[in-house]
Amino acid sequence: MMKRILSPSLRAAALIAPLLALPAWAATPKDTLVIARDISSFLTLDPQEAFEIASGDSLNNLYLRLVQHDPLDFSKIIPGAAQSWFASPDGKQITFTMAPGLKFQSGNPLTADDAAFSLQRGILLDKQPAIILKQFGWTRDNVKERVRAEGDKLILSFEQPFATDLLLSALSATIASVVDKKTVLANAKNGDLGNAWLRSHSAGAGAYRLLEWKAKDAVVLEAFPGYQAGPPKLKRVIVRHVAEPAAQRMLLEKGDVDVASDLNPDQVQAISSKPDLKLVQIPRGNVYYLALNTANPKLAKPEVWQAMRWAIDYEGIAKQLFRGQYQVNQSPVAKGTDGALAEEPYQLDIAKAQSLLSKAGMKDGFTMSIDVMSASPYREIAQALQSSLGQAGIALDLKVGEPSQVLTRYRERRHDMIVFVWAPDYSDPSSTLEFFSRNTDNADASALKNAPWRANWLTPQLSAKADAARHELDNAKRLSVYAELQRTLRDDSPFSFIVQKIEPIAMRANVKNYHGAVTFDSTAYHVIEKN
Q: Measuring CA to CA, which residue among 362, 467, 449, 369 is closest to residue 413?
């Protein structure tokens, strides 16, 4: 009798079908980790294009980057596809020596040429995450000269000096994933460098290889035995799309999934006493803030900015409203990031807020609209602000909208006030401070439309400081400049930084070594075990 051989997609379907069915299992298979998560915003698997939180962990495990964070200690940068590196004393060149004997999941050898191609590809495609690489002065015209391979060496050069810590942090981001040049170019069409194909396929050397991805359904990953750090502990990982937190909790309690990622405070409290379940609290880099548009004359006065800060109930939002799923964070850089400030100089003080409004010539207060997404936690934070600012005399008119509508209004500067979130693209504080510090061109046609531009707030001095810090080779001095920038943004800007997310990951008690950190792509599946 002839043996039937299943294609990879059919094999994946056969594996996942029983796990996606709603009727309960007694338990998930011992060699499989099943994660319930809202992956509706998972748009692409191309690591030089992806910029969404939902795809971060999958890409982190499909690909090997030049360098990476230690999966058990996020503060350490360790070798990835590169086994070592050397930065020139002038900070204008860094040379990586590639680890010998590495192979892609296709079986092709991983070389310095693949690494050079991957970084060049990030610039040439010029998708949203290209901003991470563009900061080093690389352009379509010069990237093949400044990013080049010589034997087992990858040589990166720059017109201006850059701190090694900044370079390594940026090169640990998803866009620096090393793709299999031969496989990618074999699937390229019309000069797209394989982009259309890579959106739904993978060509990496990570701990897991892709078996199947179906949008708003599931991602199925299978262990890659040739992974450079050794074979993964679990044979496969399935990330199952479950949009509703209540459904995630139900599946976790029944044993249909091992991990639930999006539970709200009520659900976390409900499972906290169950002996067969546990929680892992992960401080994420998501910082929620209030932004004012200074084009509105009432919001252009520094005294009003200060009044806002003293009219926010930080502790109430973090500890009462969200019951520990958020922590107070009054600076733009998230705690857990190198150089982040621990200082929290503000607390709810209505009398002080009213005094500052009087100083601004608004002793009777004023009414102002605030744009807010309908989703949690934006809506709840805005409602808390409406209550506490109202006590100080600032009446807020909540304009609740769909995320796409609110984001468009913010990007087009059509808001007065807005509750929004920032999450860093990589672990270095420069990722955050570049976004909040730079605006030297307030014209509508400005190429750099980040937070100060959206606030109609020109920042030539802050921009100059941020630029100098990027090129400071002494890391201690660089971080001290970043501390100055943070204090200015905290105390003298149209932004009020409120809370930082602490993500509670609920899981079965038999799951071990599930970790994460401030970046949205920091969970390494290959170290996870199940008893």
A: 449
> Contact at 8 Å (CB) between 232 and 207?
yes
pLDDT digits (tens, 9 = 90+) for 452-477: 999 999 999 999 999 999 999 999 99
- Rg over alpha carbons for the chain, rounded to the nearest Å, is 24
Are 221 and 238 in contact, with CB atoms under 8 Å apart? Answer: yes
Q: What single letter denotes the amino acid at residue 478?
A: R
Q: Which range among 2-16, 236-250, 492-506 shows the weakest confidence by mean pLDDT?
A: 2-16
- pLDDT per residue as tens digits for the range 145-159: 999 999 999 999 999
Do 323 and 502 touch, CB atoms closer than 8 A? no
Q: Which amino acid, one-letter code, is at 28? A: T
Smallest CA-to-CA distance from 149 within 104, 117, 125 is with 117
> What pLDDT, on the 0 to 100 scale, is given for residue 265?
85
Residue 118, helix vs strand vs coil: helix
Helix (H) or strand (E) holding 356: helix 350-359
Distance CA 381, CA 371 (A): 12
pLDDT, residue 376, reads: 85
What sign results for the dihedral spanned by CA atoms 184, 186, 189, 191? positive
Helices (H), 171-220: 181-186, 195-198
228, 99 in Cβ contact below 8 A?
Answer: yes
Paired tokens of 93: 């060149």
Candidates 456, 455, 458, 485; CA nearest to 469 is 485
Q: CA-to-CA distance for 386 and 369, rounded, in angstroms?
A: 10
* Lowest mean per-residue pLDDT among 1-15, 149-163, 298-312, 464-478: 1-15
